[in-house]
Amino acid sequence: MKCGNNGEKPTCEQVKELEKIISKIPNEDEIYEASETIKALADPTRLKIVYLLRSGELCVCDIMEALEKPQATVSHHLNILKNAGFLKWRKEGVWTHYRLSNSKIPENINELLKNH
């Protein structure tokens, strides 16, 4: 970064401070991965699923009933949350049961939205 003193460009001290700040930002791959994880929550149905699961494990059939959505739709959203690392699951017969991978996920979402 170039610096200057003519008022149009940052001073050399400002440039050094910016470089320090930039050096603490995660790299491009980490930023991309974080944005993909956050996108997994950027859907009303998926947020509802997270809030449903805050009370504990639920069968896909329970989630379908609560959301009044077909199995294919619920499975699609569960897969996105699962791939993002928000869910754990176990099979029982023909049904899969889901739970949050971390019980603090709804609390963390609420904290992010607190100033909204």
Structure write-up:
- The protein is α+β, with helices and mostly antiparallel strands.
- The chain has one domain (12-113): Winged helix-like DNA-binding domain superfamily/Winged helix DNA-binding domain (Arc Repressor Mutant, subunit A), CATH 1.10.10.
- The chain has helices spanning 12-23, 28-39, 44-53, 60-67, 71-83, 105-113, and strands at 58-59, 87-92, 95-100.
- It has a three-stranded antiparallel sheet.
- It starts with 11 loop residues before the first helix and ends with a helix.
- The mean pLDDT is 92.
Physical arrangement of strands within the biggest beta sheet:
1-3-2
**Percent of residues in helices:** 55-70%
The name of the CATH topology is Arc Repressor Mutant, subunit A
| Largest β-sheet summary | 3 strands, antiparallel
Rounded to an integer in angstroms, the radius of gyration calculated over CA atoms is 21 Å
How many domains?
1
| Architecture (CATH level 2) name | Orthogonal Bundle
The first-level CATH class name: Mainly Alpha
Order of helices and strands: HHHEHHEEH
Percentage beta strand: 5-15%
Number of strands: 3
Mean pLDDT: 92
Parts with pLDDT < 50 across at least 5 consecutive residues: none
CATH H-level superfamily: Winged helix-like DNA-binding domain superfamily/Winged helix DNA-binding domain
Query: What is the SS-derived class?
Result: alpha+beta
Shape designation: elongated
Tally of helical segments: 6
- Report, as a whole number of angstroms, the end-to-end distance: 35 Å
